[in-house]
């Protein structure tokens, strides 16, 4: 094994949430950003949920934003009613809410000091006090911000905008450190490697590895990437789903393709990486696919009742949790793909689940509600 990859194997599990991860820039919570951590691997350390509603909170609009969790027990989530909400994770009671100028489809990232970083369709990125929701700063971008922020070890905020640019912002002031044009749109949540390399997807432009300090391109991989977010494996492999209906495995050191596998249609779900070597992703054909990370071979396929844009997450025992536009949140056996339970909401579930330490699953729905399911 090359020395660089050996270091990645040692370091990345910590960044995935299975160790002390002292310098990843994120709050020490079970799910501090979209897809759980800096690697976007979609892996939690919680026990399995049973599919029973614990509480539901009604917002004033669709909830496509994916919840994240703070270290002091709050669920942070946006809504089409223009608000960012902080909800008590045990009761669903509102701790605070912050109103932006438009819909909030971005998912937040929580910094080490509890600051909430989140984008809005009003073309701004916000930094909010995690305890009170008070504004610390707001920065204009060139277009709507669907992207969910990522954080570098020093706290630098990396976020994309629909103007096709990824920006690096000072966490204390919002001052611009660098900006790069990497797509017709920049909707994805970046992934961050142990050495600070930032992996981004630029819609119609491809996948890029950027130097986190300067924004300079280290390598590029051409593909027709959708608004999905890349995921990093413990060996440094990058997994990317694309609108051409494929899932790609890319060498994280060189950008060279390792393998590709066909899915059933254009893919808007971001892949998750299991500890057993399975990569799981949803597809517009309504199916969840589980592929062998070594060669892309199909391990199993589960069919829901509608398109899947929600990104799956792995519970500690390998259970896969994912939403579907058929209005259900599904829990699937990670080895076989068999359904363990399904929870019905009132509309499509495009939001991606967040996994709490006690096994509670938090997810939004197009019915305007945030659900806690245990």
SSE arrangement:
Layout: H1 3-18, E1 53-58, E2 68-69, E3 74-78, E4 83-88, E5 94-99, E6 109-110, E7 116-119, E8 124-128, E9 135-140, E10 150-151, E11 157-160, E12 165-169, E13 176-181, E14 191-192, E15 198-202, E16 206-210, E17 217-221, E18 231-232, E19 238-241, E20 246-250, E21 257-262, E22 272-273, E23 278-282, E24 287-292, E25 298-303, E26 313-314, E27 320-323, E28 328-332, E29 339-344, E30 354-355, E31 361-364, E32 369-373
Antiparallel strand pairs: 1-32, 2-3, 3-4, 4-5, 6-7, 7-8, 8-9, 10-11, 11-12, 12-13, 14-15, 15-16, 16-17, 18-19, 19-20, 20-21, 22-23, 23-24, 24-25, 26-27, 27-28, 28-29, 30-31, 31-32
Description:
This protein has 374 residues and is mainly β. The chain has one helix and 32 strands. The protein has one helix spanning 3-18; strands at 53-58, 68-69, 74-78, 83-88, 94-99, 109-110, 116-119, 124-128, 135-140, 150-151, 157-160, 165-169, 176-181, 191-192, 198-202, 206-210, 217-221, 231-232, 238-241, 246-250, 257-262, 272-273, 278-282, 287-292, 298-303, 313-314, 320-323, 328-332, 339-344, 354-355, 361-364, 369-373.
């Amino acid at each position: 094994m090359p020395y660089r990859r050996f270091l990645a194997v040692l370091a990345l599990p910590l960044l995935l949430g299975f160790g002390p991860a002292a310098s990843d820039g994120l709050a020490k919570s079970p799910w501090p950003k979209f897809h759980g951590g800096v690697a976007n691997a979609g892996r939690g350390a919680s026990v399995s949920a049973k599919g029973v509603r614990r509480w539901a909170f009604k917002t004033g609009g669709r909830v496509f934003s994916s919840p994240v969790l703070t270290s002091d027990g709050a669920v942070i989530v946006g809504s089409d009613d223009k608000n960012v909400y902080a909800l008590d994770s045990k009761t669903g009671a509102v701790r605070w809410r912050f109103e932006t100028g438009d819909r909030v489809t971005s998912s937040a990232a929580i910094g080490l000091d509890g600051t909430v970083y989140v984008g809005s369709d009003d073309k701004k990125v916000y930094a909010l006090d995690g305890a009170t929701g008070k504004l610390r700063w707001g920065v204009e971008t060139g277009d709507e911000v669907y992207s969910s922020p990522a954080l570098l070890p020093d706290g630098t905020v990396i976020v994309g905008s629909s103007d096709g640019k990824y920006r690096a912002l000072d966490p204390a002031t919002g001052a611009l450190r660098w900006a790069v044009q990497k797509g017709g749109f920049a909707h994805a949540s970046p992934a961050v490697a142990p050495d600070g390399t930032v992996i981004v997807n630029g819609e119609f432009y491809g996948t890029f590895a950027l130097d986190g300090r300067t924004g300079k391109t280290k390598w590029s991989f051409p593909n027709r990437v959708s608004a999905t977010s890349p995921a990093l494996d413990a060996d440094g492999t990058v997994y990317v789903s694309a609108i051409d209906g494929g899932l790609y495995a890319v060498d994280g050191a060189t950008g060279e393709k390792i393998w590709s596998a066909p899915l059933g249609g254009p893919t808007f779900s971001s892949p998750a990486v299991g500890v057993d070597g399975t990569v799981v992703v949803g597809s517009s054909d309504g199916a969840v696919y589980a592929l062998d990370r070594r060669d892309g071979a199909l391990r199993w396929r589960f069919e829901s009742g509608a398109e899947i844009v929600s990104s799956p997450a792995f519970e500690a025992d390998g259970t896969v949790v994912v939403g579907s536009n058929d209005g259900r949140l599904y829990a699937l056996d990670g080895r076989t793909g068999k359904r363990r339970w399904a929870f019905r909401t009132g509309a499509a579930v495009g939001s991606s689940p967040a996994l709490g330490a006690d096994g509670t699953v938090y997810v939004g729905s197009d019915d305007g509600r945030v659900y806690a399911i245990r």
